[in-house]
Amino acid sequence: MTLPDEKKQAILRKFHELTLTPGWTFTESGPDEADRQLLVEYDNVVEELRLLKPEYLSVIVEVTRKMELGMADYAHKAATTGSVYLEKISEYDLYCHYVAGLVGEGLSGIFAASNKEGAFLASQYELSNSMGLFLQKTNIIRDYREDTNERRYFWPREIWGDPKYAVPKEKGGLGRGFKEMYEMYEEGNEEHARWVQKYGDCYSGALFWEWEDVCGECED
Question: Quick one: a GO cellular component term (predicted)?
Answer without folding.
Answer: endoplasmic reticulum membrane
